[in-house]
């Protein structure tokens, strides 16, 4: 028996679920569906990506819709067009056998004229991205006056992407009397603020621990010198012959460079970033979903809303600036009952980020060794042998050719035949990893590095007293979890400039002020601009001479110790 029946799901929807192979509800569906069907209550659902949230809110939304009424009654807001399309497709599948119900996906990148035309015919459920929906509201082409249910899907991601103003504008156009449901992977301050502002005594449903990472994901990190990051990536990939992974990079440029290197080195990879057209994005994702691609190299923005359930790995080529961003990345694997591995490649200066993320997700990372060339060759060889032994022989096709083939191999004994077979299939790995160096950075080396950096920092204080520094003002502070080492680490992570000297750092409740070498002011401004920290978009500017009310530009209290220290 289909267990969704016990949750109160109608026979029409059950028929659609059975055709899709849905028999057992997930934990989030088990809790949300009966609550939505039996109570008119606002709700906050905290659950990781891939736990079945779409069906959890989608099935009741379909069932509670008045089919005789053509006005829009349900609104689902999504952060990206990919997630918007996926949710709309899922709702259409769930309601396959429900008569007289129409669902429409509204998102940027598609014809707005066609969307306006579809709205004019009557749509009961709209699934939309905030930007395009707000555009249609301003054009007076969409009517939200009869809305009964509003669902925020991946609400934390919408806030990270800067949709706060659009969300406010949209909600103002909906009736006061409605049910608001908010689904999020994390419970940030901003999510709590939305709940407080737009919801009335919301019921909170938490699957797992609050703000915790996915239960089925193992977290690992590899520490290497920054110059060896790409070499380490290749070894991690080569050590997992059946890998199926998204590789997250920080910028579009880095995404493009890493993908091109992988392709040139013979890997089955491609890039997904904001410079691609919608048609190009669709083509890349089609290849990745059907596993014609093993590796998808992507930025956070490009990968938001991707619906891929069986990733073996998520690889952080660079960690995100915001620890909550890691939660979303790692949530791409370990979905739908599968297990997964989330990997971070870090250098010695980034070790503090691992500790920040551990606190955020309430889980520990395991430090792993970059495998040696010999270890990788053994792993690849075993995989190759497993593939060969698992091949089914079509005797009917092979038998007519067998005698000729057998005669060709007659002069080779068993051992020589095996070695030739392995060499033919395996020479690339054997040659590449011959005399391969050790890429690992030991804890001893790290501690030694830290001591040297501290000594260099002290020397910089003595010999650079006349160093010219520029003061920078940032709109984030203690409330967003900013720490001095985080700011220094961000500056150290700027590619291609080496070590940048940092002076005083003052962190207030909602802002921060720091000094850094004036020669690198453009690079520092560029590095911080549009970064996100705990859901807030960072803005940075050069601080005026009189900022802070005294001659130095810094307040006289809570000054960060370590005058003109070296960034480390």
Overview of the structural elements:
The protein has 568 residues and is of the alpha/beta class. It has four domains: 3-206, P-loop containing nucleotide triphosphate hydrolases (Rossmann fold), CATH 3.40.50.300; 217-372, Rossmann fold, CATH 3.40.50; 383-432, no CATH class; 454-542, RRM (RNA recognition motif) domain (Alpha-Beta Plaits). The strands form four sheets. Strands 3-4-2-5-6-1-7 form a seven-stranded parallel sheet, with helices on both faces. The protein has a seven-stranded parallel sheet with strand order 10-11-9-12-13-8-14, with helices on both faces. The protein has a four-stranded antiparallel sheet with strand order 16-17-15-20, covered by helices on one side. Helix 2 packs parallel to helix 3. The longest helix has 21 residues, at 443-463. Mean pLDDT is 83; it is low at 456-465 and 546-568.
